[in-house]
Known about the structure:
By secondary structure, this protein is an alpha+beta fold. It contains 35 helices and 26 strands. The protein has a six-stranded antiparallel sheet with strand order 21-26-22-23-24-25. The chain has a five-stranded mixed sheet with strand order 18-19-17-16-20, covered by helices on one side. Strand 10 and strand 11 (492-493) form a beta hairpin. The longest helix is centred in the middle third of the chain and has 25 residues, at 285-309. It is extended, with a radius of gyration of 39 Å.
Amino acid sequence: MGMTTPPRTLAEALRARDDESLAGLLRARPDLLTPVPGDITQLATRAGTRASVVRALEHLDRFALQTAEALAVAPDPAPYETLLGLLTGDGRDDGEHRGDADAAIGDALPAALTTLREQALVWGEDDRLRLVRTARELLAPSPQHPSPTGLGPTVAEATAGMSPGRLQDILATAGLPATHDPVSAVTSLSALFTDRARMGELLDTAPAEALSVLDRLVWGPPYGEVTPNPTPPVKWLRDRGLLLPVSTRTVVLPREAALHLRAGRAHRVPEPQPPAVEAVANRDPQAVDSAAAGQAFLAVNTVEELLKSWNGGGPAILRAGGLSVRELKKTATALDVSEPVAAFWVELTYAAGLLASDGEADERYAPTPAYDDWAELPAQDRWVHLAVAWLAATRTPGLIGGQDAKGRALSTLGPDLDRSAAPEVRHRVLALLAALQPGTAPDPETVLARLRWERPLRGASASAGDTTDLRSRIALWTLNESELLGITGRGALAAHTRALLGSGPAEAAALLAPLIPEPLDHVLLQADLTAVAPGPLERPLADMLSALADIESKGGATVYRFTPGSVRRALDAGQSAADLHAFLAAHSRTPVPQPLSYLIDDVARRHGHLRIGAASSYVRCDDEAVLNEILADRRSATLRLRRLAPTALAAQIDPASLLDGLREMGYAPAAESAEGDVLITRAGARRTPPRTAPVPVPEGPPVPDTTLLGAAVRAIRAGDTAATVVRKDPADAPAAPSGSLPRTTSAETLATVQAAAMTGSALWIGYVNADGAASQRVIAPVRVEGGFVTAYDHTADEVRTYPLHRITGVAELADEATS
């Protein structure tokens, strides 16, 4: 610490720290940097604000928080031995197990105190430990906010409004000497409750029912309700001060009495060590890696299938944002998964920047241009892209289907799904899995228990093992999503994920590549108008086959079915019958079945026989009989057709609707341009404008880097020097208020600055910048010319130039300040 006297304030304690320690404080509590404090006093003040202290407490582990809670109910200041006693007890319930627990507490307490000191929540030497006032107020007991320890107020606090006569009655009943001084009475009663022998004798005379009442209150909450005519056991306790009145109907067990009943312990179960993550199964690491790689390949294919299905323009966006429930169900059916799993894939695709809104008036979701680049990557690199996006995403798919704070349903891709804690929880869960031996699948409950110890909830829900808090829910979702994505295999962390977390994306892709099956360049055609792909297909083959046939089933092998509609889809995309025959012959390991050849020729013969254009729309055909047949068909009534010429019909609907209507009637029309050329509709042509992936919502201020920390510490040190520097004031000048700017005339300012430049001495100045912000600075003038002074600014640790007219005044530094 480098101090000869103990610090009297938090500011003095922070001022005595070295630069590395101050940088550690700012790193642990980055909210203190916004904006950079002007000096140490400002830093200490900001570190004691309620919002900052709450944020710091929420990032403590359970034992550090229990240490702070014990200090909150200890005397202020408290010596180290008193704090240790509150955590270990007074030894009245010693046993072999208790002794081991106390030893663990003794070993862990110095580290917990170091953490609290580093985060400026505790200051002072070991003989005078002080919890910052705001933390004490947050953790100390009150009727509205009971202490996390379950302890009530002290005797002095509980009797603050009690009449002297009532105090005398309590002393008399408890067998204590009478005194007319209320302070002495409180001291006497407190001494009784803290005296082990006398307290034991008093409780030996208590009725059994009274002891039962104490047992219900001892571990909290310490407050109880009483009737105007209390029962004899309650009256016995109240008359002896073991229950003190808070109001006409409420009594409280005073802290000193509760600590005696607890054998001096502030917590029922101190937890100095984190709970271990236990294994539920130990699997073969190679089997784990293979299972994870298979799931990773399936994840890549699922995302690609989702984006292909939205190639021509995806579902419309709700007015409030996101997908409708109906569209999510359709997507789940298309992907052959449940709706929550479909929501996860949609959100992952969006987080990876592969899916976005097209920004049109009729706004829809569609693949982004980045999807085309992603699709050309090897499978292992595509997976790495998805995994990295998932790790950093703050959008939380597990919330979908729930409600926001206003009772509105949370929808897929909709607003209010960001949870800033999600990335940190995901990384922490995977870090816990990475700490296990390869192939070890953890017990999820022990993972949750470890996370609760590392970031406990303050209050009863944490001690009761509440699993409904958001961090626990995110952790469970992380375990499930990890299995879906191929992060884990059969519950254990895969080798490529360990590489991703440790070495980076390149190493992860290299480990995953040998485990992903090589794509095939062939299929097996069958006589029932199906084709079987015995494995993943090369991209050109898969794209062409998906246009020519419909997927009937997926699994280890994919089954495609050829139908008139699927063949027409390939012809609409610009393929000819000859092209389709050549394609199937080149890529089938079995002969092309005759029924499939007939199907292609039959659809091709009728394809384009009718031509659709814009009139609003029209139909033309060289065969008058076909047009007569259409007009005679009752189903054409909704198309509102009329004959324009023997070979042309006009319609009152748009060309796209006319195309769909005639296809439903069994015809195979083709669209044509204004010049009469056949229009080719190619799949996958719709893309959004260039879009960036959604930016994760950070959890509080970002952690500053080393450069920023160093600059901030220098600025705080220099500002503190300027604020606390000892300066020389003229003998006839009135004393300036603390923290005020120096005031001198322009002539005095110029003369003093010129003299300092000649002698090389430092000055204390007041300066107002162009925005009107005033500050104090310590400068060493180097040159004065043209209305400007060039000086080394100790506050900014650099050479700067200041206009003389913006300097409010100057003062010389005292000799001891410049030495």
